[in-house]
Amino acid sequence: MSVDPQDDPAVRRAQADRLSAVWASPKGLFLRWTDTNNNRVGAWYVITAFAFFLFAGALALLMRAQLAMPDNDLVGPSTFNQLFTLHGSMMMFLFAVPMFEATAMLLLPQLLAARDLPFPRLSAFGYWSFLIGGVFVAGSIFFGAAPDGGWFMYPPLTTEPEQSGIGADIWMLGLSFIEVSSIAAAVELIVGVLKCRPPGMRLNLMPLYAWYILVVAVMILFAFPPLIAGDILFELERLLDWPFFDAARGGDPLLWQHLFWIFGHPEVYIVFLPSIAIFAMVVPTFAQRHMLGYAWIVLAAVGTGFLSFGLWVHHMFTTGLPGISLAFFSAASEAVAIPTAVQIFVFIATLWAGRVVWSTPLLYAAGSLAIFTLGGLTGVMVAIAPFDWQAHDSYFVVAHLHYVLIGGTVLPLIGGLYYYWPLLTRRKLSDRLGKIAFWLMFAGANIAFFPMHFSGLLGMPRRVYSYPEALGVGGLNLASTIGAYLFAAGMAVIVLDLVWPRSHPPVVRNLWNAGTLEWLAETDDTNWGVRSVPIVLSRYPLWDDPDFLRKVDEGRFYLPDAEEGKRETLVTSVIDAVPIQVLRLAGPSIIPLATAVALGGVFILTTFHLYLAATISGIVTLALILFWLWTGTGLQPEKPEKHVGLGLSLPLYISGSRSAGWWAMFITMMGDATAWASLVFGYFFYWTIHPVFPPAAAPGLAGPGVFWPMAAMALILAGWIGTIAARELYARGVVLAARLTLVAATLLSLAGGLASLAGPWLHGLDPARHVYPAIVWVLASWVSAHVAAGIIMQLYCLAGSFAGRLTPQYDGDLRNITVYQHFLALSAAITFPVIGLFPEVAR
Amino acid sequence: MLAGGMAIAALLIYLSVMLIAAHVGRRRRGRIDHHTGMRFILWAGAIGPTILLLVLLLTALPMMRPIEAGARDLAIDVSGEQYWWRVRYRPPGGPAVDAANEIRLPAGRPVLFNLSSPDVLHSFWIPGLAGKMDMIPGRTNRLVIRATRPGRYRGACAEFCGRSHALMRFTVVVMEAQAFDRWLVKQAAPSPAALAQSDARALFRDYGCAGCHAIQPDAIGRRSIGPDLGHVGGRGSIAAGVLPNEEAAIAGFIRHPERTKPGIAMPSFDFMPEADARAIAAWLRSLE
């Protein structure tokens, strides 16, 4: 047997030192904020989301104080309306979703034995966007300017500036900013799960947590864009008076409800599944056996994600729908209970088949089960339309959703906190305080929310700042208030436990004796993640291979060294996790923070109608993004290949559909296409509600004609074909012809983008008059804006070609913008027939 | 019945899940093997819930069919407005009758409600009689209710509609059918007190109250801006179910409506002498 260099302790120590140096966090008062490593950014993310959670919880305590007694006047209606709007909005957008992304950012690389996520600076950018947007939205309450239309912001109450003030703009623009960062995180997590698994970890060997992350991230990708499309229509109505939701001018408030709940119902599962994912890690550990029914739970998670997109109408059962819709959506809503039941019984069966080790995290799991199951059962009840007609918009629903969210999100997260705290900090939280907090919260949640079922059925609507004594719900409400404060006391105990200084020695590595890769993390401050990237051949490698830990620690797998002083991680193939590339990752940088500040400026300045400043901020954002891409992506390595250990050499650069960047572009465009499809849905929605649509021709109401839309489509498709041709020519090394073709493609795209706007412009469509010209303008502008972004990409590639950073060998940028062009071509090929030809057919 | 059945079933399911969980948590020995575990997941997680949900759905589907109402039944148009209810009775064959904030129904007969809104979303909810139905600008939703037992019922707006959403309530009075018919005939004619000349009637006109609040006979054929007050004296409460129908309350409301209902459209009449407000209030109460 040949001598393995890893046998030599001196070699190993030198490697570890190099890794430490490469992955060291920047220090210093200012520089530390330039960090992009998932450990540090993930921790900031978790802390920030938790702080928003406490803030939103405090708002709820004020509400409960007001409602403790009938006809109370502690806070007036205008404050109260801001309180409940901000409580709901923050819990959803500033706590539940970001907390999922934060924990995933922290845990996913560890679970996959990756050194970091594939786009560390994107993570940091997402965090800073979240922080800026979150502080902006949450801080508005201190100026009495918080949104006050309820967390689903139903127009027309919220679209009329007189009724809603600046709060509605803060909600729309502040949260849109955060939604964009949520989608960025989703793209990163999907690529992380698909491309950054350790060699050998085929999809069916992935830890269940990674499966859940994949499902939830895909759900975010398809659920948030409809809301963003709705936000765009909403702000166009508020800022420019385009009447999308104004019935007097052909709009319809129900379109917002559809777009909101196409987002809003999957959202429920987006915040629930990640917490169940934590239990999917906790349960096998404390049963000390493999999860029973791995395939079942994966299918259940995928099935839940899939079904959740077909249920949104059950939030609209009282809007006067036809019977067939009621029956269909009642049935679909019932159906989603089945995969949920499967997940619950998989956990129970695993514990039943294993050796139960009682611990604080398991206590939280049991408590979650008790609370969530009750919320799930009332969910089955409200899914039945005739019952929902009573329960809808009453305190019964408030009770239902809090049971689901406390049992399905909050308690699992706290359980996960007790489970993973030793992994993150080398210290164990206090079991005693954890149990005290548990019982306070468990009792508090039940005392607060169980009586609400009855207040609701007795006739107390939600979102009331006051109720009459004669309604007979005073006692129930007082109980709810007491329960809420008990729950808060439990949360205070948790906070106390977190900040309590600890003197006892660090805990051992993998103290719960878990079987999955995240517990490989060494308890020293080692940002590199794993000492070497292992070959994984089972679902619980730490249990199945007794030598596994030692071999990883001795660097006997891949990438045990950082010879070139660069941060690196492995990229593997999507299905079978065959290693295909060593991906160079970016280190600390100020760019993510600067870009987040500039982009935040665009949204925040627009809120205050400072359009010039917002435009300047937008130009700065664009410049920063280009600088970011130019200096940090698609860099040519100093050598084509590198030896990664175990006799394997891997390329340092790959392009096309095997690369992480290509996948990120593809996934982003799936989300983008969903937003576009939502706008097209809007067009046809208006067609279905109007007997005559498009309306009879009148000044300002004529369509865009046939010629210009068709010309725009032809030109944009020609630009698309030109881009493909340029890619092919470039790959064959015909550089000059490729450049000329790309220039031609750029000019064709430009002409197409202008022709797209020429239709509505030359026909004098007045978007403030009626919803028809407004929706045509929106669709045409959407395509034109995408053409503009496409032109920037084409010029970027041309510049790269002249600067020598884009060569026939290193052509990733050109391949990625071709993916963009595919989606642009798709949107043009559908949008222009819709606005140009459909009116001819419909008339 | 549906609710009660579901509640009992839910309780039983809940208890069984908790019992199984407790059993799993307590047990020291006698673990199940892989095969038994998988069978448990199949039956408890998949087949059992599927059967139960199917039964529930088949039971509930017939209840989704709305109650029928024909052209010969009473129709009532209700419009939700910030923050009150505009009511118009359309008895078959008879004249339309305007009212506000209180709805009377004949026991035992189906009544068709046409629900709409001119401003923002509202939702029409009488918990004791029927489920809710949204009132949406640009649409008219239909809801048929057949009340069986005479009595008073509370109603409320269930869709958040602005600052005084919590104060948008109403009362429903279910009467014996014959008594209802007699009442409606009386409502169609002006109240006797409104026909007689009086100082208070002049005050009501001179302060401009009549500009928004119709009182027959002064307002035939005009759609009033605020609640119709033609027979306000007969209602159980004022200000959309928020204040008792008493002279002091009405007078106070006229002078400071904003104190009772933040965000109300009615301007405040704080310059009106107390005596005038009282006189108008007393006169309004006499409009039975």
From TrEMBL, chain A:
Residues spanning the membrane: 42-63, 83-113, 125-146, 170-194, 206-228, 268-287, 294-314, 326-350, 362-387, 399-421, 433-454, 474-500, 585-604, 610-630, 662-686, 706-726, 738-762, 774-798, 819-838
Enzyme class: translocase
Keywords associated with the record: Cell membrane, Copper, Electron transport, Heme, Iron, Membrane, Metal-binding, Respiratory chain, Translocase, Transmembrane, Transmembrane helix, Transport
Gene Ontology annotations for the cellular component aspect, listed alphabetically: plasma membrane
Cytochrome oxidase subunit I profile domain segment(s): 17-549
A Pfam family per the record: COX1
Subcellular location: Cell membrane
Catalytic activity: 4 Fe(II)-[cytochrome c] + O2 + 8 H(+)(in) = 4 Fe(III)-[cytochrome c] + 2 H2O + 4 H(+)(out)
Enzyme Commission number(s): 7.1.1.9
Domain of life: Bacteria
Gene Ontology terms for molecular function: cytochrome-c oxidase activity; heme binding; metal ion binding
Record membrane topology: Multi-pass membrane protein
Associated pathway: Energy metabolism; oxidative phosphorylation
GO biological process: aerobic respiration; electron transport coupled proton transport; respiratory electron transport chain
Assigned protein family: Belongs to the heme-copper respiratory oxidase family.
PANTHER family: CYTOCHROME BO(3) UBIQUINOL OXIDASE SUBUNIT 1 (PTHR10422:SF35), CYTOCHROME C OXIDASE SUBUNIT 1 (PTHR10422)
Protein name: cytochrome-c oxidase
Organism in which the protein naturally occurs: Sphingomonas oleivorans
From TrEMBL, chain B:
Transmembrane segments: 6-24, 40-64
The reaction(s) this protein catalyses: 4 Fe(II)-[cytochrome c] + O2 + 8 H(+)(in) = 4 Fe(III)-[cytochrome c] + 2 H2O + 4 H(+)(out)
Keyword set includes Membrane: yes
InterPro entries in the cross-refs: CcO_II, CcO_II-like_C, Copper_CuA, Cupredoxin, CuRO_CcO_Caa3_II, Cyt_c-like_dom, Cyt_c-like_dom_sf
Organism domain of life: Bacteria
GO process annotations (BP): ATP synthesis coupled electron transport
Subcellular location: Membrane
Single GO term (MF): cytochrome-c oxidase activity
SUPFAM superfamilies in the record: Cupredoxins, Cytochrome c
Cellular component aspect of the GO annotation: membrane
Segments forming domain Cytochrome c: 195-288
Domain Cytochrome oxidase subunit II copper A binding: 71-186
Broad class of where this protein is predominantly found: membrane
Keyword terms, alphabetized: Copper, Electron transport, Heme, Iron, Membrane, Metal-binding, Transmembrane, Transmembrane helix, Transport
PANTHER family reported for this sequence: CYTOCHROME C OXIDASE SUBUNIT 2, CYTOCHROME C OXIDASE, SUBUNIT II
Family membership: Belongs to the cytochrome c oxidase subunit 2 family.
Name under which the protein is recorded: Cytochrome B
